[in-house]
Structure formats: structure tokens, C-alpha cells
Description:
Helix content is 19%, strand content 11%. The strands form two sheets. Strands 1-2-4 form a three-stranded parallel β-sheet. The chain has a two-stranded parallel ribbon with strand order 3-5. The chain is built from four helices and five strands, in the order H-E-H-H-E-E-E-H-E. It is elongated, with a radius of gyration of 30 Å.
Amino acid sequence: MRLNGISDNPGSSKKRMRIGRGIGSGMGKQGGRGGKGQTARSGVRIKGFEGGQMPLHRRLPKRGFTNIFASDFNEVNLGRLQEAFEAGKLDAGKPVTVEALVEAGVCARARDGVKILGNGELKSKATFEVARASKSAIAAIEKAGGSVKLLGAEATA
């Protein structure tokens, strides 16, 4: 094989369209920009401008707010935890904490803690030390022989 003999697969790249090169090219005259006016010019297209009428995004009322005090939890399902136990990433003998889940790759980063949700099935007996857990998750963990310790001031199920 030689460098001058290498070619790409046929049809893998298209030749660029040269616009504004005469009517015979199929992209002449207005060059695909439509008629005259602001939209035919370069660099001056106003998005959301409705000809002086109040734009839709300003006619609609403002609504809602962002709660800056809201907690941002990692939500982890029981099925995902069972996969981690089976893969050997989590040790059922040690308590399952945020740090353990981040180390195991179940959560990307710690955030404000972990909330365990009840989707999936847990077979391993383990102790969980987490910020929150749903009632169904607590029931499933206790059914498997484990226990849940809720951390923080808002230690409610």
C-alpha cells in the first residue's frame, strides 16, 4: 500500500455547493437566500422578531421560580445497586455510602447525597447510609436482610 493509492469510500463525502456562480449552476441569482431584505443580507437576522409586533416570548406571562435551596440527590434504583454487588464493585460487608457509590462508578459525583428508589430487585444483604430512601426501597432492603440509616437533618423516608 502506498500513500498516493489511498482513497476514501465512494459516497462518504459530498462536494461543497458553490453558491452565487450563475443561473446555470442552480444556485445562482439569490443563492438560496430567498428574496430581498434583511434575511438576504449577511449578519443581521433577528430571531423572534415579528415586524414590530410584541414577540410571543414577551407576550406570555412569566411563571415559576428556581428554588436555590433545593437539594440535588443522586437517585439510584435497587436494580442498579444489585448489578454493582454482582459485578464486585460494591462490597456487601461494608456500609454503602455516597463515597462507596462514587468509587464503584454507580454515581458520577457526590452532590447532596443519595436517594435510593425501589425499582428493581435487591438480593444482597447490605447496610445503607444514605440521605433519603423511598418507602418501597426501605421495605425491599429490609426484606433482603439489610438495614437503612438515613443521614442529615431531613432524615425522613
